[in-house]
Amino acid sequence: MRAAVLAGGASRRYGGVPKGLLSLGGRRILDRVVDAVHSATGEPPLLIANAPDAATWRPDLRTVPDARPGCGSVGGIYTAVVSSPGPVLCVAWDMPFVTPELLRALIAAAAGYDAFLPESDGRRGVEPLCAVYAPACGPAIERRLARGEVEAIAFHPDVKVGTLPLARVKTFGEPDVIFFNVNRPEDLARGEELWRLTP
Questions:
Q1: pLDDT < 70: residue spans in the chain
Q2: How crowded is residue 35: how many other Cβ atoms within 10 Å of its Cβ?
């Protein structure tokens, strides 16, 4: 299965600093995510990013700009889907604690679904920026974007969606840690605390 690390967003809540390039536990968050994804899929992921210097962040990866700029996280998902011939695992670049084991479980259970997401305790109940998407999601996202709907799960009613149950997710760690993402400076400080506590 192909994979993509989504390095989108203007990092407005982080003063414009590219979040994934920040160091946590002595390593860049981007490198942590790339390693987890690479371990899960066995091949280097695409890097979906719009920054002018994005190709220098990980010269070993193929960097692809958003096919539909200005559409937020769903634009990154769309770009990953249309850049891959089959299903694609998408992971946001600001999730330093996502595990290869969870990603492998998503990949293993995604067959038969157009979108396959892990359940979480978050506000949506699922994590759209740590999920597997099949080619059918491309046209579904296009239709929603044409109506101005840019929420990351807006297209779900138009495709077959499956989820990895929360109880299964918890076998890989605490969901609040696995899906922890860095949006603000205080998040980075919290991430350092979590890193020190993580076995």
A1: 9-16, 199
A2: 12
To the question of pTM greater than 0.85 for the whole model, the response is: yes
How confident is the model at residue 173, as a pLDDT?
Answer: 93
CA distances (Å), origin 66, targets 18, 57, 78, 97, 198: 16, 16, 8, 25, 34
Q: What is the pLDDT of residue 199?
A: 61
| 3-class DSSP string for the chain | CEEEEECCCCCHHHCCCCHHHCEECCEEHHHHHHHHHHHHHCCCCEEECCCCCHHHCCCCCCEECCCCCCCHHHHHHHHHHHCCCCCEEEEECCCCCCCHHHHHHHHHHCCCCCEEEEECCCCCCECCCEEEECCCHHHHHHHHHHCCCCCCCCCHHHCCEEEECHHHHHHHCCHHHHCCCCCCHHHHHHHHHHHHHCC
Query: What pLDDT is stored for residue 16 in this prediction?
Result: 63
Whole-number pLDDT of residue 123: 85
Report how far residue 72's alpha carbon sits from residue 60's, in angstroms, rounded to the nearest whole number.
25
